[in-house]
Amino acid sequence: MALSRQQLEAHWMPFTGNRQFKDNPRLMVSAKGAYYTDTEGREIFDGLSGLWTCGAGHGREEITAAVSKQLEQLDYSPGFQYGHELSFELANKIVELTPSGLDHVFFTDSGSASVDTALKIARGYWCSLGQPRKTKFIGRIKGYHGVNYGGVGVGGIEFNRAMFGQTVDADHLSHTLLDENKFSKGLPESGAHLADELEEIVLRHGAENIAALIVEPLSGTAGVLPPPKAYLNRLREICNKHDILLIFDEVITGFGRMGAFTGADAFGVTPDLMTVAKQITNGTIPLGAVVLGAGIYDAFMDNGGSDYMVEFPHGYTYSAHPVACAAGIAALDILTNDKLVDSVRAMAPILESAVHTLGDHPYVTDIRNYGLAAGISLQHYRGEPMRRPFEVGLKCLEKGFYVRWGGDTLQLAPPFIVNETQINDLVAAVGESLQELA
Ligand SMILES: Cc1ncc(COP(=O)(O)O)c(C=O)c1O
Q: Alpha helix (H) ranges present in 243-386?
């Protein structure tokens, strides 16, 4: 069915140039493994695993079977004051795959909801400990923490904030994209000193007023910014020193992309709270979660009043939806049974060598990579930083490759099931596209 321009108007698409899209629709109809098929019947390689979601590849029969069975058995069950067994099974699996010390899971229905939930848990925690003034948040420039009110306020991508003002009380660390680190492979050498800015921010606002610091261990949306060596350790030390909770937003880095089950594991630093989403159901059904330590959970339980009382007045109609939990259990089983973290570790050096061959191509100003993620920064058109990546992305699509454009970057994050040839072909398509536009 070909949709008319008029029919396309009804849906206001998210994070999309609606006018351009509706003049030139890019519509997928099916997907299997690492490929989509579009309405023209063309195969398109999935160079971003959906939106960093589908690492195990599309159309996984184990997930389809689990979801179908669950829909037949229990399509919905109220998540408030009632439950179902799958959420507890999934919570235990998540606890097993995340660092020791993170023992409890609060389910949400997206990455953005997980971030806002984590921020509320942080404030509620201090409140329950009798420190209600610890309310301020610290984020980081270029950070992306979703689109809800808290996430936008702690986030640091200017374009995403400009329309909305400062939505919550937050200050920001500098970003870690340093000139001296350009074209680094893996973790950049320079930049651990940037963590010391947290000391200055604490001096400015007072530790007694700060609830939490939130950072992505590796920023994905800003264009794949791996943390400088020792940077996250330093943030951890300063948070410990001043009694500030450390939140890792692992919506992209959680469940395999870094060649470890979490970014915390990959980089050897454990936060107090961790947000996850995306890969948890392999992108099939919306689900997110906040994973946290016993100290925080117990503070709510110990200060929750009579035992019939709600300890944390928060939750979503679709928190721990039974169908999403069935998908999550099946997806995490695939991750462990198929040893996909090992596959990421095996393919990461291949992506690294391939993507860095683009360094001498037209317009390329920087390349970064870690695990199965790579970011390529492109020279700006005067006053239009986002235009060139958009043009390159469309050229790649003509060649049968989906790559993400965002800000002044292109982002590559192929599925964990990718092989060497597919990686080389993906990078070659980006290279040819850059040459053609020169
Ligand atoms: C680090 C991070 N946090 C939060 C989000 C928001 O997730 P969602 O789009 O599921 O709300 C994203 C999405 O890209 C993300 O990368």
A: 263-267, 294-302, 322-337, 340-356
Select 5-56+339-437's CATH number: 3.40.50.300, 3.40.50.720, 1.20.120.80, 3.90.1150.10.
3.90.1150.10
- The backbone torsions φ and ψ at residue 134, rounded to the nearest 5 degrees and listed phi first, read -80, 85
> Going by CA atoms, what residue is nearest to atom 3 of ligand 1?
145
Name the stretches of the chain with pLDDT < 50.
Answer: none
Q: Identify the H or E element spanning 247.
A: strand 245-249
Q: Is residue 52 within a helix (H) or strand (E), and if so which, with residue range?
A: helix 49-52
The closest-lying atom of ligand 1 relative to the alpha carbon of residue 148 is 11
Report d(CA 438, CA 165) in Å as an integer. 38
User: Tell me, what's the pLDDT at 5?
Assistant: 93
Q: What is the pLDDT of residue 6?
A: 94
> What pTM does this model have?
0.98
**Beta strand 35-38 with 28-32: parallel, antiparallel or unpaired?**
antiparallel
Give residue 426's pLDDT: 98
Q: Report the nearest-CA residue for atom 7 of ligand 1.
A: 111
Pairing of strands 245-249, 288-293: unpaired
Is residue 117 within 6 Å of ligand 1 at its C-beta? no
Q: Return the CATH class of domain 64-337.
A: alpha beta
* Burial bucket for residue 314 (CB in 10 Å: 0-12, 13-18, 19+): middle
Q: What is the pLDDT of residue 2?
A: 86
Residue 384 parent element (H or E): none
